[in-house]
Specification:
The protein is α+β, with helices and mostly antiparallel strands and about 525 residues long. The chain has 21 helices and 15 strands. Helix 2 packs across helix 3, helix 16 packs antiparallel against helix 17 and helix 17 packs antiparallel against helix 18. The protein is rod-shaped. It starts with 7 loop residues before the first helix and ends in a 14-residue tail after the last helix.
Length: about 525
């Protein structure tokens, strides 16, 4: 405790007794302080060339600052050599696989008389500014990207109405190089958030290993200290870009300290530059932001010889994973149960889509974009359809239907007319009359099937004659054709049928009576 400064009241007593001519031994005994300590403060008092009156008027804080100065020791030559390496060491530590011990091995191989590992680490930590209060994390290049929204919003003015709308400001930062990306968007909705994250990746030209978001609903459905639930669409986005989502803990801003600091930098650099300007569209605002962003990223760090852009080009650009060929299209995800007719309903559009008939009653995962609908069961795609937004209609792939359902799905007027024409023209004409008789063709499909299926029982010739006779009666239905065939009327001419049907009786005059 020899270097610990004494209380200011005792220091004032020492100086007062000294100016009164008291000896150092007397002062030492009177104050209960060693004589060497008394000598030290008297020496500092004389070197300051101040009078006691001037010192007595000083506040304790000023007095403490004045007398705590120790004689600066000259920096050793080997420490000077080590300190010259610190800037390069800091850059090297951002590269994958590099740690302090490896850098010490390289240092000691060049300077065998240099510091051992413990002192080497102490001097670097002291230069780097590490403390016990808050742990500083050394980020690896290409490892993480932190994202957040700024608390303060920018404004857009409607030219026609003069209405002022607030625009959200998205901020992201690569942790190793600290390259910043900023973008304004209409809201913090899931679609806008994912689009902003994707634009950030496009700006950086690569993908980090992990993305660290806040706990907004667009990224995290349910926050939790240990196992947060990621929003399913954002999770799908991460799979598309082969990265990982690592949400920050709730009320733990240090989990994303860099982007929190980046937001403050954006306030002072971009917001301040745009404060006097007016913007009428979101596009105009983003163009202005991009101009100021380039200035920010190319500006030198305050105490370092390089900029964010230079550090990014040197350390991080080559380490980021490549971007996929296709940009991500926002996908909605839902779970549905297949109905007994082999279809499911996409509730957002109230439209029905088919799946293979074997999945009836199964619960499946449905992902859909603005153009496509895909169905998954046990991580395997079992159906894919073009998205249709017509409510209460069906989109059916005939390959998905069972054999019986396939047959029924082909029913339409043209199908029955073509089937009838292959039997005989009379059959085709009768079918046409049946289809035209009902308000809706579907109401007559069963009659058509019944008549056409008689071809297997009686043959093409008899069915044609029976249909011809039914046409002559003006009766267009299945029952008439069946009656004709059962009574054998298809084998009689129309005149023979009339004679055959006239009964013999004395009271019947016959046709000769009227001649």
């Amino acid at each position: 405790m020899a270097n610990k400064i004494i209380a200011m009241n005792k220091l004032r007593i020492i100086l007062r007794l000294h100016t009164e001519g008291k000896s150092k031994l007397f002062i030492s005994k009177y104050c209960g302080i060693s004589r060497n300590t008394v000598k030290k403060y008297i020496k500092q008092f004389k070197s300051s060339k101040l009078t006691y009156e001037e010192v007595a008027e000083m506040c304790n804080s000023h007095l403490h600052t004045l007398f705590r100065r120790d004689e600066e020791k000259p920096v050793q030559e080997r420490l000077q050599v080590l300190q010259k390496r610190f800037v390069a060491m800091q850059k090297s530590l951002s590269k994958p696989g590099v740690n302090l011990y490896r850098l010490w091995e390289e240092y000691i191989s060049e300077y065998p008389e240099g510091y051992q590992y413990t002192q080497f680490r102490i001097h670097y930590r002291r230069w780097h500014g590490h403390t016990n209060v808050s742990m500083r994390i050394d980020h690896k290049a290409g490892d993480k990207m932190e994202v957040d929204y700024s608390g303060k919003k920018l404004q857009i003015i409607d030219k026609q109405t003069g209405e002022i709308r607030n625009a959200e400001v998205f901020v992201s930062i690569l942790c190793a190089s600290q390259l910043i990306y900023v973008e304004a968007s209409e809201s913090q909705s899931k679609e806008n958030f994912i689009t902003s994250v994707e634009n950030a990746l496009q700006y950086y030209g690569g993908v980090p290993c992990a993305i660290v978001p806040d706990n907004l609903k667009s990224a995290v459905t349910k926050s939790h200290r240990y196992e947060p639930k990621i929003n399913s669409t954002f999770e799908d986005f991460a799979e598309h870009y082969s990265t990982t989502i690592l949400p920050a803990r709730v009320y733990k801003p240090k989990d994303k300290a860099l982007v929190e600091g980046a937001v403050k930098i954006v306030y002072s650099s971009i917001y301040a530059s745009l404060r006097e300007r007016e913007f009428y569209t979101l596009e105009q605002l983003n163009e202005a932001i991009q101009e100021e962003l380039e200035v920010l990223n190319n500006r030198k760090f305050r105490n370092r010889p390089h900029s964010r852009r230079e550090l990014f080009d040197e350390l991080e650009k080559q380490v980021l994973k490549p971007l996929p060929k296709m940009r991500y299209e926002v996908r909605e995800i839902c779970w549905v149960t297949i109905m007994k007719n082999g279809h499911f309903c996409l509730r957002k559009d109230n439209h029905y889509y088919s799946v293979p008939y074997g999945y009836t009653g199964k619960k499946v995962k449905v992902t859909y974009t603005s153009k496509q609908v895909e169905v998954y069961y046990n991580y395997r795609c079992i159906a894919s359809h073009q998205r249709m937004k017509s409510p209460y209609n069906y989109t059916t792939d005939t390959e998905h239907l069972a054999s019986t359902h396939k047959f029924i799905s082909q029913w339409n007027p043209a199908y029955f007319l073509k089937w009838a024409a292959n039997i005989s023209p009379d059959v085709e004409l009768l079918i046409q009359h049946i289809l035209e008789k009902k308000p809706h063709p579907e109401q007559s499909y069963r009659s058509c099937i019944g008549i056409l299926s008689l071809n297997k029982k009686v043959g093409r010739e008899r069915l044609g004659k029976a249909c011809s006779r039914a046409l002559s009666y003006g009766l267009y239905n299945y029952k008439t054709v069946v009656n004709i065939l059962e009574r054998g009327l298809d084998n009689l001419e129309l005149e023979q049928e009339a004679e055959h049907d006239q009964p013999e009786h004395n009271n019947i005059r016959g046709k000769k009576y009227y001649s």
